Amino acid sequence: MRIAVTGSIATDHLMTFPGRFADQLVADQLHTVSLSFLVDNLDVRRGGVGANICFGMGQLGTRPVLVGAAGSDFDEYRAWLDRHGVDTGSVRISEVLHTARFVCTTDADHNQIGSFYTGAMSEARLIELKSVADRVGGLDLVLIGADDPEAMLRHTEECRTRAIPFAADFSQQIARMSGDEIRTLLDGATYLFSNEYEKGLIETKTGWTDEEILARVGHRVTTLGSRGVRIERAGEPVIEVGCPDEEAKVDPTGVGDAFRAGFLSGLSWGVGHERAAQVGCMLATLVIETLGTQEYTLRRAHFMERFTKTYGDEAAAEVRTHLA
């Protein structure tokens, strides 16, 4: 399968302030706050849901097509993704805007002050999927991830018009979307991804029951945190897959993206949904054990050893042929 992933491309600039923000605030002067914090360090991390998912798929050898918008400062990030098996040929480069950026300072009490700069992400709405499909020789599935909301709507409508199967994955954007927008984005999706909380929010905002949503999508894939994942299809038995044991719990950021990367890779290999979910859960476990969304290394022997321990020899034999 040729899979394209649309979604945000961003960098996180994370700083640490050794003091407490609260000690710098004067109660009767909060209406004229003017503060500057001398920080101890700066940690720049690659991120964005589209890039995170594609990085994981690249680690698994499936060469996904990243579709999104970045700025002229994307060169180093592009080289990183290219080196890790991602096709970045369909990334739009803005002539005037920088790549989206999250800037955050954390104090000694773990309070945070942050800002998100949308930047070039706003130009993702200008990308036409037909040009992407023509460049790579066709698309079998498009995952429409969190991005510029207008881009998400345009990509969804284009998939319907051109009969390209698509997966709906609202992620962080679900909080700002209306019920009408969510109904538009999920109706007819081959896959609908969400976590358990987002599942309830989708039902509340759309006014549709779980059964009504299942009647409008091919499969509903709901991640359950440490309990794994549940896959539902109308009229078929529910598939539930658990997670491997964690060796450490370092940072949960990007775990959902990693699951999607593993699941989509499984679809690309042509394995069943249960097996694809197992690959997703294994990759997500590697990410939660690592600081940063793209800082893990997939060592295939180690991956398969842990996969076999959790899911058994038969499952491992099927996955090993593709992973090798």
Described by the principal axes of the CA atoms, the overall outline is globular
Task: List how many beta strands DSSP finds.
Answer: 13
Strand residues, percent = 15-25%
Mind telling me the C-alpha Rg? 20 Å
- Poorly predicted ranges: none
Could you give the order of the helices and strands? EEEHEHEEEHEHEHEHHEEEHHHH
Give me the side-by-side strand order of the main sheet.
Answer: 5-4-1-8-9-10-11-12-13
Helix content: 25-40%
Distance, first to last CA: 18 Å
Q: Quick check: average pLDDT?
A: 94
The class by helix and strand makeup works out as: alpha/beta
Largest sheet: 9 strands, mixed
Question: Would you give an account of this structure?
Answer:
- Helices cover 37% and strands 21% of the residues.
- By secondary structure, the chain is of the alpha/beta class.
- The strands form two sheets. A nine-stranded mixed beta sheet has the order 5-4-1-8-9-10-11-12-13, with helices on both faces. It has a four-stranded mixed beta sheet with strand order 3-2-6-7.
- It has helices at residues 49-59, 75-83, 129-136, 149-161, 179-186, 196-206, 210-214, 255-269, 273-288, 300-311, 313-323; strands at 3-6, 10-16, 41-47, 65-70, 87-93, 100-106, 112-117, 141-144, 166-169, 191-195, 219-223, 229-232, 239-241.
- It contains eleven helices and 13 strands.
- Helix 1 (49-59) crosses helix 8.
